[in-house]
Amino acid sequence: MNLEKVIFGFFVLLAATLNFGFFIGDIAESLLHNVYELFAAIVVSLIATVLKFGDRTQIGAVHLATSLVADLQLIAAALVWGYASYVSSAGLTPHATASVVSLSGGALFANVVSVVLLVVETVSFHRR
Amino acid sequence: MGNPLLVFWMRLFGGEEEPSSRRLRRRIPFASAAQASATIFLILRRMRAPLIVLITIFAISVLGLTLIPGKDPGGQPARMGFFDAFYFMSYTATTIGFGELPNTFTYPQRLWVTITIYLTVIGWAYAIGSLLGLLQDRAFRHALALQHFTRKVARLREPFLLIAGYGQTGELLGRSLDALGRRFVVIDRAAERIDALELDPYHADVPGLAGDAGNSGHLGVAGLGHPYCEGVLALTDDDEVNLAVAMAAALLRPELPVIARTISPAIADRMRAFGTPSVVNPFDCFGDHLSIALRAPATYQLMMWLEDGPGAELPPRGRPPAAGGWVMCGYGRFGRELTADLRAEGLEVCVIEPRSPATGDISVVAGDGFEPGVMARAGIEHAVGFVAGTDNDTTNLSLIAAARRVNPKVFVAARQNKPATAPLFAAMGVDSLLVPTEVIAHEVYAQLSTPLLWRFLQELPARGDEWAARLIDRLTDQCGRHLPALWKVRLTAVEAPALQSWLTAGDARLGDLLRSPEDRELRLEAVPLLVLHGDNCVLAPEDDLVLAPGDEILLAGRSTARRDLETTMVIDATREYVLSGRHVPASWIWRKLARPGSREEPRLAAQEVSRPGHHPWPRRGPHAAGGGRPRGRRRAGGPSGG
């Protein structure tokens, strides 16, 4: 067992699960989407990105790319949330909530790709 | 083609001579470039831990702030949102510190903030410290420098030379090449020399790589595979490395010219096994030079002057000794070469050498030259020449002193190995000094600066001493005691479009071409050194030499003369004035207006006026073809227009 692989897999999977947890539920209903979960998703996603630094393989490069996409989407979601809650006079309307959740949905897709890559890597490793 | 615009067009799009030969035959592997990117990946990997620590500390701090209850100004419980918490942590962690926002903190909040302040300071210090440490990292800097170098070389868009080895020789040569406006790329094992490159006052940017030149990957990065690479110079002080460079160049780019330095004939043979590199052996060159200097001092003076490069002062003419015996101290590679050269001149040589070598018919005195009695046994008091040729400068200096004590009038030739001892040898007043690095630099410069100069220097010794002395007088009369710029003109349709009809007329005298466009009674301040016609060359041609299209001329002269000559070669009106003294309008319309009704080309008539004694009519052109000789004559004689 390789400890590095355990940590790597843990963070990649945790980023995907947290993202999924935030995303699930009625898209316009702000009560169903906990902002702490979004925060946790962002932090874990950032850590996962840094863990992917410095891998020279092709699959490592794609890993890094998917993580960067997820970060971008999640940070965009956080920005929309911050704007709606603090700057906009209307507050966190269903419309704004829908934007935040759909952005995190995009991040979820990238995270799923990341997980698929992880699985592919693991399977191909065993076959060798 | 007299129109400068047309000439410009031709230069841009007309030249079909060069590109095909420059085509790259195969790709050179860039092993070092891959190494460089590997280092950058390693650096990224090393930044993982500090970044993760920073993210974690930030996340914990922000999360804590949002969870700990606070109070709004009205005393009602209020928690900080993520945005407030993130904002607060951002300015606190970066030590900007705007105060407690949005509300004054409660004590539990202050407790947490105290903890987070210490945590984040540690996190930032760790991350920034690691980053700065990486920037200082030798491997990282080397990788960056390599990438920078690779980019610079890849972006070169003019012909350049690849110089392997940037010691004394490389530096001397680099300066001369830079003065000629040639580009070059340098690769050397010593990083200090590459750093020194940036301080050298070059006109052009010189990319330099610190690395082993014997590594073909490094050569590839330095532009061996570049389509604009026009030659490879192996000038390191290590014969093995030079051999490796010559081999790599011959195998990977067989079409490139290679000049390699060596002091060993065996290595020279091994180099010649790969293609046809031009091998420069400083000892060999010095032997040849010394025998020329003994036979023909003016020829030697001229050679040294021309090889010194533009701006060099005329070296003093040596006074060679009369025929007689020579004493040679040190019988290594240099001693052997020089002894052979001196004996070939018919001189008696006596060798002083501690280890008695098996030399056959050469008289050898065993011992060190500075030991008492050894010099006398070698017959120094009757000798005319003395050579201090060991590989130790201190020994050489004491040998010279010992020889001069016995025979003050002896002609002294010495070998200087280290640049640091140059002032000592200068103070000694040595008659002929070998500095191997300078000999190589001069030799390579002569081969590279223009092919015609090399040809000139090859043919020079055969011309005799008086001839050389006359040429030196001519050069100093025209251009002063500092060597003027040397340049080459080609009388082709591309470079000299205005002269073509004059050249094909068959009576194109060199002297007419070298008149000044400002006042044709004055001569341009330039001396023609050589005219190459096909494969024949004329050295120091006289004014009445007849030129033909396609001839190449090597000239020495001031840069103003060069510009003037180029004007004559390109612009019709200037050509007309310089060759015939007639002022003609520069533009086509004015020329038509100036001679209404005349269909003749003005220059043909002009030539007839200027040289009535020579060809009355050039045997070419539409008039001659039409058989209209009498009519042409009548018209030129009396332009009535009838």
From TrEMBL, chain A:
The keyword Transmembrane helix applies. Keywords: Membrane, Transmembrane, Transmembrane helix. The chain crosses the membrane at residues 7-25, 31-51, 63-84, 96-120. InterPro entries: DUF6394. The keyword Transmembrane applies. This is Uncharacterized protein. The lineage of its organism: Bacteria, Bacillati, Actinomycetota, Actinomycetes, Pseudonocardiales.
From TrEMBL, chain B:
Residues 612-622 have a biased composition (Basic residues). It is a multi-pass membrane protein. Residues 323-434 form the RCK N-terminal domain. It is found in: Cell membrane. One of its GO terms (biological process) is potassium ion transport. The chain crosses the membrane at residues 50-68, 80-99, 111-135. Residues 599-642 are annotated as: Disordered. Keywords: Membrane, Transmembrane, Transmembrane helix. One of its GO terms (cellular component) is plasma membrane. This is Potassium transporter TrkA. It comes from Pseudonocardia bannensis.
